[in-house]
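User: Predict structure, ligand flavin-adenine dinucleotide.
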Amino acid sequence: MLRLPRLRYLRPSSAADAAAQTADLGGRAMLVAGGTDLFPKLKRRQFEPDTLVGLGHLAELRGVRGDPTTGVELGALVTLAEAAAHPMLRAAYPGYAEAAGQVSSPPLRNAGTIGGNLCVDTRCNYYDMTYEWRRAIGFCMKKDGDVCLVAPGSPRCWAISSSDTAPMVIALGATVVLAGPEGERELPAAALYRDDGIEYLTKRPWEVVTSLRLPPAGGIRSAYVKLRRRGSIDFPIAGVAAALRMDRGIVAEARIVMSGVGSHPVAASAADAFLVGKRLEPDVVAAVAELAAKPAKPLDNADLNHFWRKRMVRVLVEEALRQAAVRTPD
Ligand SMILES: Cc1cc2nc3c(=O)[nH]c(=O)nc-3n(C[C@H](O)[C@H](O)[C@H](O)COP(=O)(O)OP(=O)(O)OC[C@H]3O[C@@H](n4cnc5c(N)ncnc54)[C@H](O)[C@@H]3O)c2cc1C
Ligand code: SF4
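Assistant: Predicted complex:
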């Protein structure tokens, strides 16, 4: 049985205090919310901090505030189960509620938080393994080694961004609020991510995501479609988030963002631009799916064949557009 290492647990008095304590300890401390991703990784020695800085008791990080006409703010500790079941989110931001509701399995959605989901580690078949497995095959550059086992000639890590909610919040144009020792800052959710399997977040390691701000929902139709081997638990091997604004049947604004196809949530900007001014006729949808799939680069480091996954991106894009288009905007 895999066991957690011995760890010190700190219970900060606020998000700012959590950031200060984490910063003070440098690389020795990590933040923890629900622990659904972090604890298995500690057991597999993918992370080796000696201290965890707990967020789970901080009331300031809880709750859903505001309304869809002016924008909605979700505390980082809102659980995925709460987000998925929230009536206002389901009505006004259905794609977001769907993405949260498709993460993992019910027990993990009860514990896992929306903040943790935005910060969740990138994944790779050669990395998400026990310490002994990784040692036997030779460590890779994401932890303890210096080569990439997927692309041995590559100077970088290609681990995959696999958050279900990250592409959806980017498609919706959301922002995140971060607390650091010197105060708060707000940035577009898209700016939280970097195309690198190791340094996949742009935020400083000690900064705490305190909330997610969804913009006014007026007229936005959204949907999230996910591909995975087992619908009951698996991470996405491809996921597509779509947000559309329509004007009398014509697309006025479109954002398609994909998960599981790169080291960051991948925006299909060319497809978005192509869609504007058009009706969602079958030939348009097929052309958009083709354009959207271009920047998707699945590698051979996740479940199922990567050529097939690339082909499936087109199918998922078509399905996400089909579902978003028939949603009645709030
Ligand atoms: C079997 C299994 C299946 C899973 N399937 C999926 C899936 O299908 N889709 C998916 O997206 N995820 C999946 N996950 C990953 C995980 O359960 C979710 O991403 C969850 O939302 C993580 O939230 P958490 O609160 O548990 O994060 P934690 O495990 O507590 O933390 C995850 C990371 O985020 C950081 N962090 C957490 N909260 C904050 C914060 N507020 N501010 C700054 N940093 C923070 C932590 O330091 C850590 O690096 C799966 C995990 C398991 C074990
Ligand atoms: S992509 Fe390469 S470096 Fe990154 S985790 Fe996988 S094997 Fe390791």
